[in-house]
Amino acid sequence: NNECADTSRQSIVVNEPPVSAFSTSKLSQAKFLFKADQQIYTSYKWHLRDSTINQTQFIYQFPNPGTYEVMLDVIDGKGCNSSTTDSVDVLVGFADQQNIKPDLKVHPNPFQDQFTIDYQLSNTSSVVLEVYDGTGKRITRKVDETQSKGKYQYRFQPSKHDFQSGFYVVRMIMNGQAYEQMVIRSR
Questions:
Q1: Where do the domains of the chain lie, and which CATH numbers do they carry?
Q2: Global pTM value
Q3: pLDDT at position 95, please?
């Protein structure tokens, strides 16, 4: 028989791509925690604005309001890669007016030497009361406790917390729900 024959076998392995999903947690008005859902891969590269961050999770403070894209690239031990992009909306220093609780009062506004925060609880509640500057940095945490039904009043003195002229956000978290109100210091 003058015919030539040849046989060849080749195995091809198709690997599952890595999962590049991530979660975003808002820590304050402009501060976010970004965390990869899977933390078992060889390489993690976050792309955010002009930065590249090589960690499984990180905290980022945005300087200005706006919508920002965040991308996570992951590479597994076999060299397979995957990317996910999501966006975050940042509102620096301004409260959502629909979020102001009617019984949360900050006065006087604007203030010079001190301001007072009044609120009333209709039942026992978990309460956190904080003040943030215009960049989203927490200046002070005045309350972090369970409080009984009733009226409450707290005074803030700028001299004790190095308040400069400008705007601040009073944030009250009651039973997990955040309520915010802007207050302005003028001299």
A1: 22-90 (2.60.40.10), 97-185 (2.60.40.3080)
A2: 0.46
A3: 43
